[in-house]
Structures are given as structure tokens and as C-alpha cells.
Design brief:
This protein has 107 residues and is an alpha/beta fold. It contains five helices and four strands; from the N terminus they run βαβαβααβα. The protein has a four-stranded parallel beta sheet. The radius of gyration is 14 Å and the shape is globular. The mean pLDDT is 81.
Length: 107
């Protein structure tokens, strides 16, 4: 069975512990990179990562984009949403379908 984890700054992720998610506070890029790769090896099926960390780890996350597992899902941090989550969905749909069917882009 796969596990679910969440990574981000301590203030943004600690409340998810009450929901039963495995919480991994990461305050710097290097720590976050190591944690991401460790979680991918430890059979985490879903890894939520706060948007502020995703910006710093794009190359590491790209490594898993074509994999089914782990699913890496951006979530807003305590500072709010940056729109990155919706842009990732848009990119995934464009890659799968070949066109922007969500936002009416070029046809």
C-alpha cells in the first residue's frame, strides 16, 4: 500500500499531521531535495509539496513527471496560492491531449 506525505515549511504542513498524513517539514532546498527522493524510494504514492518549495526544486520534480508514482501535487503554503497548481494541471493536459482544452489556448 502506498503512503501519502506532505512537504513544506513547518507552519504550512504541521496541521496535516492531524489528518493522518506523514509530514516532512523542509526549511531549505537541499533538505527538501533529499526528502523528495527518499519519499519516492519509500513508496509514497502521493507527495504534496508547498508551492514555495516546488519553485526551488523544479529540476528534481521534473524527474518524476513522467512516472505514475509518486504523484507530486503542489499545494498553497501559508503565504497563499501562486497559481502553480493550475499551471501544472494545464501542462499535463496539454502533454496528454496535445492542446490546451482547459483554458482555450491555441488550437
Amino acid at each position: 500500500m502506498y503512503k501519502i506525505g506532505i512537504m513544506g515549511d513547518r507552519e504550512s504542513v504541521m496541521s496535516f499531521k492531524a489528518l493522518g498524513l506523514d509530514v516532512f517539514p523542509s526549511e531549505n532546498e537541499e533538505d527538501a531535495r533529499k526528502t523528495l527522493h527518499r519519499l519516492a524510494k519509500e513508496k509514497y504514492g502521493i507527495i504534496y509539496i508547498t508551492e514555495n518549495l516546488i519553485h526551488a526544486m523544479e529540476k528534481d520534480i521534473d524527474r518524476y513527471n513522467d512516472s505514475i508514482i509518486p504523484a507530486i501535487i503542489p499545494i498553497p503554503s501559508r503565504q497563499g496560492a501562486s497559481g502553480m497548481g493550475m499551471m501544472n494541471v494545464k501542462k499535463s493536459v496539454e502533454r496528454a491531449v496535445g492542446a490546451d482544452i482547459l483554458f482555450g489556448g491555441d488550437k
